[in-house]
C-alpha cells in the first residue's frame, strides 16, 4: 500500500541529494541547510513514534533542528539558476520540443485527479494500492514520479539530469521554499491557540445584531486579511470558519456552508495575490525572473485581486442565504 510516508522519504532523499551536490561545490552552508531539512522530513515518523511512547527527546531534537534552519537561512547566498550558455541551450531545446514540454507538467494534476477519484478501486491481490485517508497526497507523489520519468523520455535525457535541475532550482529559491510549510504550521498554531474563539467573541460584541450583510463582509475581509498575514488561504480558513463562519453565518443566519466555504476560500485567494508572505507565488517568480523589484508580481496583480474580491463577495451575498 502506498502511504504518505513514502512521499516524505522521497523528499528527504532529494534533499540529501541537493545537500551532496552543494557539498561537492564547497557550498557548506547550503549543504548543511538541506541536509538538516532532509533529516526532518525523513525522521518525522520516528519522532512521532517516540513521542507517543513518552520519549520527548526526539521532539526536542526536531525543534532544535528547526532553530538550526533559522540560523542557517541568512547564510544562504542567492544561487543563480543557470548561466548564459545554459539558458541558450534550454531555449534551443524548448524550440525543438515545442508543446511536448507541457506533457510532463500536465501529468501531475491529471494523475492526481485520477487517483483521487478511482484510487479506492485499485488493489493488488486483495490489498488496497492507496491508503484511503491519504489518497490525494499519495496520488500527487505518484504523479510527480511519473512526470519526472515522462520528462526524461520527452527530452531524451537521463533521469538524474532532471534531479540535477530540480536541485539547482531549489538552490535558486533558497530558504523561501520552506515558507509554505511554515505558514501552514502557523495556521495550525492560530487554530490550536484559540484565535478563532477570540474572533467569534469579538465579532459578536462588535457586529450589529441581525445584520447578516455586515457579518458576511467581515468574514470575507477577514479571509483576505488572515491570508495576507499567513500567506495561505488554507491556514486562514479554519480560523475564520471557527470564528465567524460556523457560529454566526451558518448557525445564526442560516448560510449555506458549501457556498460559504467555497467562495470564502476564493476571497482568501485574493489575499494570496497581495502578500509577500505567499513567497512561492509572489517572491520566488520575481527572483527566478530576476525582476528589479522583488514585489513586481504583486504590483502587477493587485488590481486583479480587488476586482475578483468584489465580484466574489457580491455573488456570495446573492447566493449564500438562499
UniProtKB/TrEMBL annotation:
Presence of keyword Membrane: yes
Protein name: DUF979 family protein
InterPro entries assigned: DUF979
Membrane-spanning ranges: 6-24, 31-49, 101-122, 128-151, 172-191, 211-237, 258-279, 302-321
Keywords: Membrane, Transmembrane, Transmembrane helix
Keyword Transmembrane: yes
Highest taxon above the source species: Bacteria
Species name: Dyella solisilvae
Pfam families from the UniProt entry: DUF979
Amino acid at each position: 500500500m502506498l502511504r504518505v510516508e513514502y512521499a516524505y522519504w522521497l523528499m528527504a532523499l532529494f534533499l540529501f541529494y541537493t545537500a551532496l551536490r552543494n557539498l561537492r561545490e564547497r557550498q557548506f552552508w547550503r549543504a548543511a541547510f538541506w541536509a538538516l531539512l532532509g533529516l526532518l522530513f525523513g525522521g518525522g515518523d520516528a519522532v512521532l513514534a517516540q513521542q507517543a511512547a513518552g520519549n520527548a527527546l526526539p521532539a526536542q531534537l526536531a525543534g532544535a533542528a528547526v532553530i538550526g534552519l533559522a540560523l542557517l537561512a541568512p547564510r544562504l547566498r542567492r544561487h543563480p539558476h543557470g548561466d548564459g550558455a545554459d539558458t541558450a541551450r534550454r531555449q534551443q531545446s524548448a524550440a525543438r520540443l515545442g508543446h511536448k514540454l507541457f506533457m510532463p507538467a500536465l501529468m501531475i494534476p491529471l494523475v492526481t485527479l485520477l487517483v483521487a477519484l478511482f484510487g479506492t478501486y485499485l488493489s493488488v491481490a486483495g490489498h488496497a494500492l492507496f491508503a484511503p485517508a491519504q489518497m490525494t497526497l499519495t496520488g500527487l507523489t505518484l504523479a510527480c514520479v511519473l512526470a519526472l520519468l515522462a520528462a526524461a523520455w520527452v527530452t531524451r535525457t537521463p533521469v538524474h539530469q532532471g534531479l540535477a535541475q530540480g536541485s539547482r532550482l531549489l538552490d535558486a529559491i533558497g530558504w523561501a521554499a520552506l515558507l509554505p510549510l511554515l505558514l501552514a504550521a502557523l495556521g495550525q498554531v492560530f487554530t490550536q491557540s484559540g484565535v478563532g474563539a477570540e474572533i467569534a467573541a469579538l465579532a459578536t460584541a462588535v457586529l450589529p445584531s441581525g445584520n447578516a450583510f455586515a457579518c458576511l463582509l467581515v468574514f470575507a475581509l477577514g479571509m483576505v486579511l488572515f491570508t495576507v498575514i499567513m500567506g495561505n488561504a488554507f491556514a486562514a480558513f479554519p480560523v475564520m470558519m471557527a470564528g465567524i463562519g460556523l457560529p454566526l453565518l451558518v448557525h445564526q443566519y442560516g448560510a449555506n456552508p458549501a457556498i460559504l466555504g467555497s467562495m470564502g476560500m476564493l476571497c482568501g485567494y485574493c489575499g494570496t495575490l497581495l502578500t509577500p508572505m505567499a513567497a512561492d507565488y509572489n517572491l520566488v517568480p520575481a527572483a527566478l525572473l530576476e525582476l528589479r523589484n522583488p514585489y513586481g508580481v504583486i504590483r502587477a496583480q493587485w488590481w486583479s485581486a480587488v476586482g475578483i474580491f468584489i465580484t466574489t463577495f457580491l455573488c456570495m451575498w446573492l447566493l449564500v442565504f438562499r
